[in-house]
Amino acid sequence: MPFFIDTHCHLDAAEFDADRDAEYARAVAGGVGVQIVPAVSRDNFAAVAATCARYPGCLPAWGLHPMYIHAHRPEHLADLRAQIGAQRPVAVGEIGLDLFVRDLDYATQEYFYVEQLKIAQEFDLPVLLHGRRANDPLLKHLRKVRVRGGIAHAFNGSPQQADEFIKLGFKLGFGGAFTWPRANNLRRLAVDLPLEALVLETDSPDIPPVWIGRGRNAPGELPRIARVLAELRGLDPDAVARATTRNARAVFGLADDAVAAAGNGGPPDPV
Questions:
Q1: Within its chain, how far is the Cα of 66 from the centroid?
Q2: Is-above-0.90 flag for pTM?
Q3: 58: burial class by Cβ within 10 Å (0-12, 13-18, 19+)?
């Protein structure tokens, strides 16, 4: 069976409270052996930690998301450092900038983004970037504060912007959005960008693929998303699985044995 890494999955979200065990088991049964679970604020560090403790295939990332700047305080950066020191994550994230939501103060977003890049640099960790309509300012700061690469999550920019991220050591995250037939730009990117630059993600419970419509996304959809990518590129699905898993392992520094150990974890016993 192909092995997949969901590089961005909020399995801790309240949308999964009713059936989290079942959705995790479905993902593992489909070959999704590793799920990266990013935090979005200091207040959900505990939920991410609990999720990753319960499910052996879930690995944490710690960060302060730009859409939650109303909740962030400067002292939360110290809490982030402490969390990283207590439980080393695979990345700092989810961090970044959001210029789509109009009432998010840009200066505040920028402050937390830059400070978290410095933290990632300090701990030698990659970053998971949120960047709606913000690729150029994201790149501007990445050139000033060099980090150990990472992933431009839900990438939807130009080929030129993609090239700039790749030059800085980043992979580009593709998920349910490109499965929609009208997503012409994303589908072109999914075909034209080098396969060694792509990783797969669901962003569960968000960004559902076309077959779900407006419903809740889940990590178990990742193999089907991979098949769509394979069809668009004219490749064997197993080749896409191998390449994107290899790319994700490179981002997070996951050795073969670490991936295998995480992926062998089935559903936990009922509580």
A1: 15
A2: yes
A3: buried
